[in-house]
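Thread title: Can someone regenerate the structure for this chain?

I was given the following input by a collaborator and told the matching structure tokens would be attached. They weren't. Posting the sequence so someone can regenerate them.
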Amino acid sequence: MGGRIRSLTTVLLTVVSATFAIAPPQAQGFAEDVCYTPGGAPPHNCAPLPPPCPVDDPNGALCGLEAFVRYGYTLRQPLGGRSLVHADSTYIIARTVGFSERDAYWIAAYDEATDLGTFVPRDADGAPVPDAAALTTADISGLVRTHFATGGFLFHFLPTMRDPRDPEPDGLRPDVDDPAHEVMLTHVRRWAMAGPGSAVPLCTGGFTNPSASGDYATGAECFADPGPAQINGTYSVQAPIAIPFTNVTGPQVISDGVLAPQFDTWVGAESWNARIGIYIHALADRISHHACTDAGTVTAPSPERPDFRIDLNTPTCDQGPHAVRHEYETGVDFAGLEPEDETTEAALSMVYDELVDFARVRGTLDPDALDSEAKSTLIVDGLLPALQHRNPVERLNAVTDVGCRAGVAAFPGSPSCRG
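Best answer:
Regenerated them for you:
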């Protein structure tokens, strides 16, 4: 019997590897969990964890295959969906720490748009909300998770620049003040903090000319020393099978024909909120994908080799475990997860802390947000239990209720606060 199981596993892995070779996998940290159903039916789970699959073993081949197939099917549905982590939770946290309702909405909308390219708020039946046109983001498809050619992929998978012999970083709590190692993360954060009109660049891969401190994240200009460099990477399908990708250093592509120096003009009045939303998304995805990106590496150009190299061809990046781990992020009992897979709690905690810092910079910080009890009440006692509901309608209502109890009006398209 054991031999048959091993043979079946081998066949399935061969099939899924062939599928990946034809169609690159989705790179979705905290992917959409509530998917809209055509015809106005209630929303469904985009990709729930299959009931037989345990929450403490992401490496099972059969569960990995089923998880991948579910994502591949549901995330191609015509109405799509949204992430209650990237959208609703970000909105509730931003509002709670002191951002206005308008600012909190646009931060959350651009957080979600970083996955989708453009975010249009919809109600639970999938219909655009009445004022959807005024609440739709600018197109930022250059940052989308599956766009390898624009460097968008690297806003979702953020590897670290370290010697492979060094200990792996703690990606559940990445150091946002470590540009020597967390290149992309600290680069995007610096750009977001600088705000509209600043000369701080947003560069493909986060790569600048070396700063005075010698890092490649915080230089004054995008890497061009003496000219643009190739960025050559590999991303695991089923190690050692990998997808190669190539970019060139320089300003980040925002949309078709729009580069990073045009970002503020392209987005308009909500530019600073958009910058924050994009960074918050990258931060959450750094945590979501940490099992992969902690093991990955970035190497800088050298006299012998003039390109940046990104190696994400490791077993922890394999697409089966990748898909299963995303199904651990909503709709399951978080208490059963292994510590390294408790990414939802880790991400919400850091998103809260970072939004506190951004609210301080913007001059809107609510002093009550600095109380650790306030943070715990919102996240540990509120959002985390709400996100564990397996039924998507119950999960959506529960997350909305958390905001309502905190005095936050419902996110556009969510059920109105009751009472």
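The first strand starts at residue 34 and ends at 37.
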